[in-house]
Design brief:
With 337 residues, this protein is of the alpha/beta class. The protein contains twelve helices and 14 strands. The strands form two sheets. It has an eight-stranded mixed sheet, with helices on one face. Strand 11 and strand 12 form a beta hairpin. Helix 6 crosses helix 9. The relative contact order is 0.15. It comes from Liquorilactobacillus cacaonum DSM 21116.
C-alpha cells in the first residue's frame, strides 16, 4: 500500500482522497492543517483514523507516509514541495506547482540531487482519456489554423472579494487570479496539443488589488494563434474549438472535456470516451502505476516527460503574467534572494 499524507483539508483534498480510496492501492495516514482538530475531522468525515499535524517539520519527519499531496494556497506549493523532496517524500502538488520559473528551477535542481523522489503536478485533465483523444486528433490534422479555448467559471469566493475581503484565490500575496487558477488548464491544453508558443500576450481585467479576475491570452505559433478565454468573475458557456482546414474539433469545455466532436463539413464524429465519476481517478491511476514501480526506467521517464510539460506550462503562465504586469509576492521574494 502507498501511504499518503495530505496538506490541506478543502474539497479538493477530499476529492483526491476519495479517488485513492476507489483506486484501492493507497492509505491516508496523515493530515497537516493549521489545527489538529480540523485535520482529525477531515479524516473522520472520510471514515478514516488519521494522525493530525500542525507542525510542518514534524509532519515531514514522520515515517507514517511516503507520498504527500499538497493542496494548500498556490504561494505555499513551492516551499512545501521543497521540504517534502528534502525529506524524501514523493510529491503530488496541486496546480499550479510553482508561482514562477525561478521556483520551478529550484525544484528541478532538488529533484536532480534527490533522484529517488517522484514529483507530479496534479493537472488532472492532462491524464484523462478525452484529453489524450484531443491530442491524438490534433496530431492527425494536416493543417492547424488555430484554436479558441474557454474556461470561465464564477468563483464562490468572488462574493467575498466584492464584500471587501481578499480570499487567497484573488490575492497577489497567495499567487491567485484567473490565469494562475483556471488558465493552467488551458495552458496544459495549448502546450500539449500545439507545443511551446513563440510569443504570448495577456490582456487582463484587473480587480482593485491588481489581480486578474478574467482575461484573454494570445499564444502565437508559426502561421496561427491560439486564444485562451479565462475568468473567475463570470460564467461562460462558449464551446472550445481547434481549427483544421475543413475539420473542427469542438469541445463542450476545454478543461472538463465531457463532450468532444470532430465536425468536417456535413459529417460529425463523436470522440468522447466515458470518463470516471471522480475526475481525479485518471491521474491517481497514473501516479499509482509509477509509484508502485519506482525503480522502473519507464516510470522515471514518464515523470520526466510530465515534468517537462509542467515546466513549459509554468513558463507560459509566467510570460503571460509579465505581459500584463501582474507581479506576485513570490516573484518579489525570488528577486530578494
Amino acid at each position: 500500500m502507498l501511504k499518503l499524507g495530505v496538506i490541506g483539508t478543502g474539497w479538493i483534498s477530499k476529492q483526491f482522497v476519495e479517488a485513492i480510496q476507489e483506486n484501492g492501492s493507497w492509505e491516508l495516514t496523515s493530515v497537516f492543517s493549521r489545527s489538529i482538530e480540523k485535520a482529525e475531522k477531515f479524516g473522520e468525515e472520510l471514515g478514516l483514523n488519521i494522525i493530525g499535524y500542525r507542525d510542518l517539520e514534524q509532519f515531514f519527519s514522520s515515517d507514517d507516509f511516503d507520498v504527500v499531496y499538497i493542496a494548500s494556497p498556490n504561494s505555499l506549493h513551492f516551499e512545501q514541495s521543497r521540504q517534502a523532496i528534502l525529506a524524501g517524500k514523493h510529491v503530488i502538488v496541486e496546480k499550479p506547482a510553482c508561482s514562477n520559473p525561478q521556483e520551478m528551477k529550484i525544484i528541478q535542481q532538488l529533484l536532480y540531487k534527490n533522484n529517488n523522489v517522484y514529483y507530479f503536478e496534479a493537472a488532472r485533465h492532462f491524464h484523462e482519456p478525452n484529453f489524450l483523444k484531443v491530442k491524438d486528433t490534433v496530431k492527425q490534422m494536416n493543417t492547424i489554423q488555430g484554436a479558441t479555448l474557454t474556461y470561465m467559471k464564477y468563483s464562490s469566493k468572488y462574493d467575498d472579494f466584492l464584500a471587501g475581503k481578499e480570499p487567497n484565490v484573488f490575492s497577489l500575496d497567495f499567487s491567485g487570479g484567473a490565469l494562475q487558477d483556471l488558465g493552467v488548464y488551458l495552458g496544459y491544453d495549448a502546450v500539449s496539443w500545439f507545443g511551446l508558443p513563440e510569443k504570448v500576450q495577456y490582456v487582463a481585467t484587473k480587480l482593485r488589488n491588481g489581480i486578474d479576475g478574467k482575461g484573454l491570452a494570445l499564444l502565437s505559433y508559426p502561421g496561427y494563434t491560439v486564444t485562451l478565454n479565462i475568468g473567475k468573475i463570470a460564467n461562460s458557456y462558449l464551446k472550445s474549438e481547434v481549427y483544421g482546414l475543413k475539420e473542427t474539433i469542438v469541445m463542450d469545455n476545454a478543461a472538463d472535456l465531457e463532450e468532444i466532436r470532430l465536425i468536417d463539413g456535413t459529417s460529425e464524429q463523436l470522440l468522447t470516451q466515458k470518463a470516471a465519476a471522480n475526475p481525479m481517478a485518471a491521474e491517481v491511476s497514473d501516479f499509482t502505476e509509477i509509484l508502485k514501480n519506482p525503480t522502473s526506467l519507464s516510470s522515471k521517464q514518464k515523470m520526466e516527460d510530465w515534468l517537462a510539460v509542467c515546466v513549459q506550462v509554468n513558463h507560459v503562465l509566467y510570460e503571460l503574467r509579465v505581459s500584463a504586469e501582474i507581479i506576485f509576492r513570490a516573484d518579489e521574494q525570488m528577486r530578494e534572494k
